[in-house]
From TrEMBL:
It is found in: Cell membrane. Pathway: Cell wall biogenesis; peptidoglycan biosynthesis. CDD domains: MATE_MurJ_like. Involved in peptidoglycan biosynthesis. Transports lipid-linked peptidoglycan precursors from the inner to the outer leaflet of the cytoplasmic membrane. This is Probable lipid II flippase MurJ. It holds the Pfam family MurJ. It is a multi-pass membrane protein. The keyword Transmembrane applies. GO terms for molecular function: lipid-linked peptidoglycan transporter activity. One of its GO terms (cellular component) is plasma membrane. The lineage of its organism: Bacteria, Deltaproteobacteria, Bradymonadales, Microvenatoraceae, Microvenator. Keywords: Cell membrane, Cell shape, Cell wall biogenesis/degradation, Membrane, Peptidoglycan synthesis, Transmembrane, Transmembrane helix, Transport. InterPro entries: Lipid_II_flippase_MurJ/MviN, MurJ. Belongs to the MurJ/MviN family.
Amino acid sequence: MQDDSFDCSGGVDSGLANSAEVVNKLAIATLILAASTLLSRVLGFLREVFIAYLHGATAATDAYYAAFTLPDLMNYFLAGGALSVTFIPMFSAYLAREDEAGGWRLFSIVATTMGMLMLALTVVLIVFTPQIVPHLFPGFDDPAQMDLLVRMTRIVMPAQLAFYVGGVLNASLMARQIFWPSALMPLVYNLFIILGGVALHPWIGVEGFAVGVVAGAFLGPLAIPLWASRKSISYQFRFAPFDPEFKKFVWVTLPLMIGVSLVTVDEWLLRYFGSMHESGAISWLTNSRKLMMFAFAVIGQAAGQAALPFFARLYHEGKEDELGQTLSASLQRVMFFSLIASAGLFVVAEPLVFLVFQRGAFSVEDAAITAELLMYFSIGLAAWGAQTLAVRGFYAREDTWTPMIISSVVTVAALPAYWLLNESMGIQGLALATSVGMVMNVVATVGFYRFKGHSLPLKPVGLGSLRGVGLGLPAALGAWLVLEQFDFGEGALGYALSFGSSGLVFLGVLLALIALIKPPEVEVLRAKIARKLRRK
């Protein structure tokens, strides 16, 4: 639906110019968050490398990864991980009306009321952890492993309070297009996990990493946005569960509390089914999935984080066509780069996994299984990126019910795929089920977005996807030929040569094709970066 003022202004060119300006700002914000995400994921890799080196893939590491499930469940059902999705559009609406005081009143109510609820629930869950976690992991039949899981779950639980309060603070910053705290928070968080795990390893083993999680959560996701907001924040203690604005916040957030999104549930399903396999299965699944999520975070997650404040502002200003054009352009770029990355990740999976993980207690067999799982996970990389962006078209409108219903239906529909593929292919089937489920999710989300009549040109997205496949496949073929024709040997040097050689060939073929074809996705980014550098 077009805005009448847009029509009457005779401003198609003006509208496109404004849209281009928004896309430019969005691209810059995306690049900032992508750079931060890259650094954060590098630290995350180092964290996993230290865990693998010190502890391998064992019952203890399975318990460590499983210890996050109950805290994640609490965070999920209080929508702590979705604060940016629900709070940013509401806070942005106040800013668009030039009512910043009203925005801070909403902030005070949400931070106080939800913070108190999370504190109470944290205490209750810590008390009843031994009764709850056995039902989440029926395959953990070793009493020592279960005791370790209970201890680490209790250690990690308080971190969720820091994530929630810090999340509200950070959402208020992002609504004002202040992104540097979002860039710094995960870096500090991951750094303290590593420090805790390494420093405490001689005394408490893998539990040291759990202690690092709590320290990192309070010093990163909480302390950094608190410091960044110190001069601008206007907070008053307001416990007001019956306030009309809080009721509206709960209504918008409720779908994210009661819905079951495959984006989140996927990891729980992998842990649940993984607990029924041999010791180390959860660790193999976790390590391979995190390698795939590294690429997703740099390409898709950063774009999604940066996009929502812009989408929300465009919607509240009544610029429906510009919102559609901006969403389409973002999806086009994400699909293009994600499909290229998917092809590259698939072909270099084995040398990459061996280079990153195969040392210390992490055996050759552990690395081989992890590499195979990564291939299956990489198939769904583009779907992860597209889903993260597509769903924000709904969130910008403060419509959380529609995507909740879509994602819940898709999750239920995908459950048989997880069960069947697990039964027929083992843990490899679980990795493939993740990719299949995410493709189902994004197709349903985009399809229903268009069905509701929202503006979203799909032709640019389709052309960008075709260009991504057209560039990614030849580059992957070149890298595969290198791996097939040359034996680089084993050990760290051999793995480095194998990964480096295949990666260079992939990159060389890709750059040659880019120079020949000049895809608009690359040209647009190149122009934006050049303009940014010229300003500096």
